[in-house]
Design a protein that fits this description.
about 260 residues; 16 strands; elongated
């Protein structure tokens, strides 16, 4: 877990040990660099076991968003479970359509903030490897180290909408747009492809693999992503596809789309 925590702090900052590339989301600073009148918020460390992920011991550092005073809009349209079920039903009802999933890596961490946020971190939460690599001992004030947050981070109330707006801006030149009346559903102006987006997870229906590749090529210009062409797991839902008989079992009692 200490190794996992070091990876997370390195991921947020400028890397660690040459094994993790930083996202420049945070920079460690001196306490006096926090602007006058600006209150530094706290962090929470969340640890989870992710057996299906490459990094099974997953540590996430999140921000105490309740202490962040952001004047802009923070509401983000998110897809509901019903949208995923309807997309699955649409896939098996559309001749030749198939389903795959994709996961954007560090989706929130790559979004520049329009207003920087400041955090203070108890030294007891920082692994020794990070303390040594960033010389944090010299920055300690009353048992805390301070950092400025320059990009989106989990827990920030504005992180979701800023990441979503940036994704919209980046996909628009390639013909993709969000549906006005169905939150989280995206389509293409001419191509037979649509997808549901939940945070950073894509559930994609496509008719012709070249159209899915078009979407992923557009995303790869700005993000690192992992694609699962089998489409068997999406947002915790196991999907068993039978394209011959055009059915899908969503592992929900009594629910089979046909």
């Amino acid at each position: 877990w200490l190794h996992s925590a070091a990876n997370e702090f390195g991921r947020l900052a400028q890397g660690v040990g040459g094994r993790v590339k930083g996202t420049n989301t945070i920079r460690f600073i001196q306490h006096k660099a926090v602007p006058k009148g600006q209150k530094a918020t706290y962090i929470r460390v969340v640890c989870e076991l992710k057996p299906n992920k490459e990094e099974k011991h997953r540590t996430r550092v999140t921000i105490g968003g309740n202490m962040v005073d952001y004047p802009g809009n923070v509401s983000t349209k998110t897809a509901e479970l019903e949208s995923t079920k309807l997309l699955a039903n649409s896939t098996v009802s559309t001749p030749g359509a198939q389903f795959c999933t994709a996961d954007l890596e560090n989706f929130y961490l790559g979004t520049p903030l329009d207003q920087w946020v400041y955090i203070r971190i108890p030294m007891g939460l920082i692994p020794q490897e990070i303390i040594d690599e960033y010389n944090l001992t010299d920055l300690v004030v009353d048992g805390f180290v301070y950092a400025v947050v320059e990009k989106g981070m989990y827990g920030l109330p504005q992180a979701g909408i800023l990441a979503n707006e940036l994704l919209t801006e980046r996909l628009k030149p390639h013909g993709y747009y969000q549906c006005a009346h169905t939150p989280g559903l995206w389509k293409h102006k001419t191509r037979p492809i649509m997808f549901v987006l939940v945070v950073d997870d894509f559930g994609v229906q496509y008719t012709g693999i070249e159209h899915a590749q078009h979407l992923f090529a557009a995303l790869q210009k700005h993000y690192r992503l992992k694609v699962d062409w089998s489409g068997t797991l999406y947002c915790g839902i196991t999907m068993k596809w039978d394209y011959t008989n055009r059915t899908v079992d969503l592992s929900m009692p009594g629910y089979v789309a046909a």
